Amino acid sequence: MSKTSGKNSSIRLKRDHPNSSFEEPISSTKSSSPPIKKLKHQHNSTTDLMDKETRNRYPNGSSSFISSNSTKKLVIKNLKTSSLLLPSDYFDKIWPLLKQALEAILNGTTSPTNEEQLYRHIDHLCTTSTNDTNSSPPTLLYDNLRKVLDEHIQTFLPILLNETNDSNDYLRVLNSIWNDHIIRSSLIRQLFIVLDRTYVLHAAVPSIWELNQDLFRRYIMQNSIISNRCINGILKLIEQERRGETIDRNLIKNLIRMLIDLHLYRKDFEPSFLQSTEELYHNEGRQLIQTLEISQYLIHVDRRIREEQARLTNYIDQSTKVQLIHIVENNIITLHIKNILSKGFNILINENRYTSIALMYDLFLRIGQVGISDLREAFGNYIKTYGSALIVDVDKDDKMVDELLEFKEKLDRFLHECFHDNEKFSNILKDSFEHFINQRTNKPAELIAKAVDARLRSGNKEASEEELEKILDKLLILFRFIHGKDVFEAFYKKDLAKRLLVGKSASVDAEKSMLLKLKQECGNVFTSKLEGMFKDMELSKDIMTAFEQHWHSREVPGNISMFVSVLTMGFWPTYQPVSAILPAELCHLQEIFTKFYLSKHTGRKLQWQYSLDHCLLKGWLKEKTIKEFQVSLYQALVLLLFNQHIDLSYKDIQEHTKIQEAELQRTLQSLACGKIRLLNKKPLSKDINVNDRFTLNTSFDHKLIRIKINQVQLKETPEENTSTTERVVQDRHYQIDAAVVRIMKTRKTLAHAQLISEVFAQLKFPISTGIVKTRIESLLEREYMKRSSDNANVYEYVA
């Protein structure tokens, strides 16, 4: 339906066509109405004609047109054939006029016959019967129209078959002929629209538009010479554009549109276009992968893909998109994946080329899982190779943890910025990191524990609480990767004990925060002893508060104060008992505390550990200027000797203190050979010998009142390190024994291979098959189990 209003308005129906739009007159019950669009009379006369026609057709006042004063529905009725008969020679008389008008349209001239009259004649021929029974006027009209169009199309052949050296000029001529043909075809169809709606509709012959297209296709574009020149010319222009030259894109777009309309695009043009594209990019990819740097090559590949996508937008049909992009990606990406990765991936990672790696990921993502799988594998191999170099280099142990943190931070950035937090890349990062960090048994766990200790000690004042928390989180990430978590626990517990007992912890909150992180990571069993250490320190404070009240009622020797930490042996690291001769005042205080404690807690035994004791001494060395010295117990014992002696030998000091020789050497070295020298040594040297003699340094001077002397017990000796590692190994042996006995007690009888498998499944720390076999042999000797009498490879549990 259509609505209109206003004076002198007309109504038309529109019918769309791929190449043109035109207007058709509305057919009414009579078949002789002229096309309104083509009337060449003045506007007023057109209106009069319409009014007259309306009155003739609708004598009762009913009309399909809408008056200027009201709006009504437009009613379109079926076409009816008039009952009038045409003369038998009507077609012969009318055809010359129609042919003359047809040739005028084809040649671009003006027809001498009025278009209204021509339309009436065609309407009569198509809708009115004739006396001639031998032939149908519509059939004659259609056949003669075909003949004229056939002859006209062939007139283009001499022009298009003419030799020309310039392919661009040739394409422009062909494009001009095609555009003109489209316009003429549209005009002819409008003139013969009634023929299309009547005869063509029922005779199953091509429409006038299709007839024109078919003739152009048959005579012009299916001519091998013309077709080859056209396609080769288009391909040449595309090749020039690919070389960076400027071309006429509209020309290519029009010609490709022509091939599509003529149904020749997929058959004639697309195969040649895809073949030329494959040849170009195959040669280009093979050449450039050898000459360009990988980053430059990736940029080139990305630019090429964008260019081809622009061609699809501008003139290449979208039906070619999948094949075209696949050819480009296959020839410049897929075929060179191995070269791209082997030649430049590690270099780009080492140089932190985030943009290039991100581009590589995006390009590989285009070709599916094949490219991404290879990229993921290369990423994992890089992590293992680079990380292994960090781990196995013994000379860089001091820097290992810091370098691991930097390496992990770098990989996380690549994961986020380049691989868009892809889950599979994240998994390969974790697996590869875990693989290389455990290649060196126990050492990474030990160094990570020491790194945590270094951050939590009070000497680490450059970091705020928030920064300290972030560093601990990063160290915890490294902790997750190590298998020997029991090694970490042993060293962490030993260092925590020193921090708590010597009072060198940076922050109690930070300590408890780290403990909570470990508990969340490894569970209650892992942190139960560590939590017990904190409880002991809190209980010790309560005990000392009660002891101070008890102390005030007693006679205290000298001006001495004492704080004792009471430790539960199972929670704390194992310390070797050491002996030393204490001053009488300290011995008396020990006795007072021992009696006080045992009176409160019956059935317990106190064992004094001197290795972690520390003292604050007050005194002077020069001009009676009071200084305070923070020293270890061993350092204090040595210094106090010089209250009664001016000069002492090494052997004298050893006999008066009874300090073990290794500890005594370290203590004397800290007092006589360090930056702050309270003792003078003869002869001068950096090492302590049994023949050395020591005197008090009375010329000592320092700007501070309270002076901290290097406390040797805070430094871990190689012997302590080895001892800690050996205790971990021994604990593992106990755990293996317990696991084997637990399994055999449950299963009663079990084959050797199955027993080994179940032991590996239960234990979380790294062990070898040889160690498990050794522990099984030990249990056999101790008669926890025995070999079956029927099969030596089967074990039986001994109750």
From TrEMBL:
Top-level lineage group: Eukaryota
Biased composition (Polar residues): 1-11
Chain coiled-coil ranges: none
Pfam families, alphabetized: Cullin, Cullin_AB, Cullin_Nedd8
This protein's pathway: Protein modification; protein ubiquitination
One annotated GO molecular function: ubiquitin protein ligase binding
Gene3D superfamilies attached to this UniProt entry: Cullin Repeats, Cullin, Chain C, Domain 2, Winged helix-like DNA-binding domain superfamily/Winged helix DNA-binding domain
Region feature Disordered, mapped onto this chain: 1-64
Keyword Metal-binding part of the UniProt annotation: no
UniProt name for this protein: Cullin-4
Organism: Rotaria sordida
